[in-house]
Specification:
SAM-dependent methyltransferase; transferase; methyltransferase; Rossmann fold; 7 helices; 24% helix; methyltransferase activity; alpha/beta; Methyltransf_25
Length: 223
């Protein structure tokens, strides 16, 4: 198993995400983490904004925002905020922002795509600005196992875990009321030396951990 895919009611994006399910997801503290890492009123570009879960929270905190996603179905769920449909790897908006956000663990992909994402961040961050990244916590790769838990009315069942060298592929079932979705996805771990090299490739430098307890969120600065 190594290709991301999904199934269930409604539109499924090319990477296996359900538009309907993502529209149901609550915020889980992400806007507050980002807000604390940038100046008041900082402009923010979110790459891979999906149905606007984080983007809307940042706008409510007073930030001018622009969201980018490849899925028109996802962007249709954010009619009240500025959005752009486009591929993150090749995005060229012709403007820069005080902060660029790459959340939802999208950085945990193969090295080529990871570097393309970071280059897009670099192209769109202002001099003196900040890139904010959420990665899969490094400990997850060793600890994830089949499990089940319910939060905010969403039952999440990790049904299968497959380890292939350093890569981890999981099959997750999501249940909300009488609706169910399945998402299969692969995560690539990023060692600290790999992260440093990827950032340098994109002309960025590591700044600091925003969540040092799990090393899920960090910032980078342009060089």
């Amino acid at each position: 198993m190594n290709a991301n895919h999904g199934s269930g009611p409604g539109e499924i994006t090319p990477d296996g995400c359900s538009v309907e399910f993502y529209d149901l997801l609550p915020v889980m503290g992400e806007p507050s983490i980002v807000h604390a890492a940038v100046p008041e009123g900082a402009s923010i570009l979110e790459l891979g904004c999906g149905a606007g879960r984080i983007l809307r929270g940042l706008a409510e905190l007073g930030h001018p925002v622009v969201g980018v996603d490849e899925s028109p179905g996802m962007l249709a769920r954010v009619p009240d905020l500025p959005t752009v449909r486009g591929r993150m790897e090749t995005l060229e908006l012709g403007r820069v922002f005080d902060a660029v956000l790459l959340a939802s663990t999208m950085i945990n992909t193969d090295a080529e795509q990871r570097r393309a994402f970071l280059e897009t961040c670099r192209r769109h961050v202002a001099p003196g600005g900040v890139v904010i990244v959420q990665q899969t916590p490094p400990s997850w790769f060793e600890t994830v196992e089949p499990s089940e838990h319910t939060h905010d009315g969403i039952r999440r069942v990790v049904r299968e875990v497959d380890r292939d060298g350093r890569l981890v592929t999981v099959v997750v079932d999501y249940h909300v009321g009488d609706r169910s979705w399945t998402h299969t996805f692969t995560r690539h771990p990023i060692a600290e030396d790999e992260l440093a090299a990827d950032l340098a490739f994109a002309k960025l430098r590591f700044d600091r951990w925003l969540t040092p307890e799990d090393r899920a969120w960090f910032t980078a600065r342009p060089v």
